[in-house]
Amino acid sequence: MTSFNTDLVHGSSKQIKDANGAINPPIYTATTYAYPDAESNVQYDYSRSGNPTRDNLQSLIAQLEHGEAGFAFASGMAAIHAVLSQFKPGDEIILGDKIYGGTYRLINEYFKRWQLKFKEVDTQDPAAVEAAITPDTKAIYFETFTNPRLQVTSVKEISAVAKKHGLLTIVDNTFLTPYLQQPLDLGADIVLHSATKYLGGHSDLIAGLVVTKAKDLAEKIYFAQNAIGGILSPQDITLLRRGIQTLAVRMDRHQENALKLAKFLQDRDEVAKVYFPGIPGTRDYEIATAEVRGYGAMISFELRDDLDAIQFVNHLQLIHIAVSLGAVESLIELPATMTHAELSPEDQLKAGITPQLLRFSVGIEDANDLIEDLAQSLDQLSK
Ligand SMILES: Cc1ncc(COP(=O)(O)O)c(C=O)c1O
User: Fold this and answer.
1) Residue in 28, 44, 48, 252 annotated catalytic
2) Which of 222, 245, 268 is the last residue of a domain?
3) Which of the listed residues 245, 278, 311 is the one where a domain comes to its end?
4) Which domain holds residue 49?
5) Cβ 358 vs Cβ 332: under 8 Å
6) CA 188 → CA 110, 122, 185, 212, 225, distances in Å?
7) Which residue among 197, 231, 232, 239 has the greatest number of ligand 1 atoms within 8 angstroms of its CB, and so is best to mutate?
8) 227/361 same-domain check
9) Are 259 and 166 found together in one domain?
10) Average pLDDT of each block of 10 consecutive residues along the chain (383 residues)?
């Protein structure tokens, strides 16, 4: 058995049987595959139903997440849609109360129309989750590190509650990746990703991945993938596979930089509060220390009330103002007016999103250059 970091590099090539000895899986663009004769039992007939390039990536992510089967989708949202589409009218899902805005929209403006019921609960509090369970509850869905305030949920504790009541645990592992946490090992049944973020890693593709722990769930996700059809293209699969090969080295640098930048921000007078699970003394730190192999590389922070957060981001020279995350380049955004703008002011407040809050996706540049950029912009504010 090889180790995780070796599997990142070699995992996908181990499965290819290319006649020319190609060390990377070929990109199969064919939409359809010829039958040797009309009665042959072929593995591939149509690329929405199955494609060798996609199978290769799907086996890789299943291997990395320690699951039964993996599935690749055209976006993180398509992946979430496929997962939630297995439920039926009347089923209830307990939701972490701080989830990605796009997931919130899919649930409220789409799945509720199909009579799925959702109940938002603080998943940091397993007792509250247990108290919310009703006879209709079928699953608990949450993000391990929440967006944008980086509150940490214990996969172990929540999946123990779920198991006790015969429910599924579904974890969005986008912020951590299997390099930092493998939720299926901690008790989850389904793990999913916006692979657009750290797994892809280069701001150049949109993708989603799902991995199931058990075969019956895999069959349901396969049905949704084939029937609804939100598959990832072979070209994007190749980009994603290449991104995954460098995941470990990128995450190491991302995290090393994030620790330095969190420290820098904590030391600055202009910064009122820093939210980062790597700062000791919080419940987030405790859970992350127990269950995660690191603290990730997302930092949120609030500027002092008398300082202008818009001016602050506008003055940055190196760090891009952009809404995505998990890329090699550092990205910063204002959740109140950008990623979480669709939340009402009350919901924003409930989620801890103030106009002074900034969400910072720390890249893999030289940390000193990032510090210098933040410092010059903060210096201009306090003049
Ligand atoms: C935690 C999380 N889950 C899911 C998604 C949706 O993924 P995508 O944008 O790839 O559709 C995002 C996007 O930002 C996200 O941050």
Assistant:
1) 48
2) 245
3) 245
4) 4-245
5) yes
6) 25, 17, 7, 9, 21
7) 197
8) no
9) no
10) 93 74 92 97 97 96 97 98 98 94 92 96 97 98 95 98 98 98 98 98 98 98 98 98 98 98 98 98 97 98 97 98 98 94 84 94 98 98 80
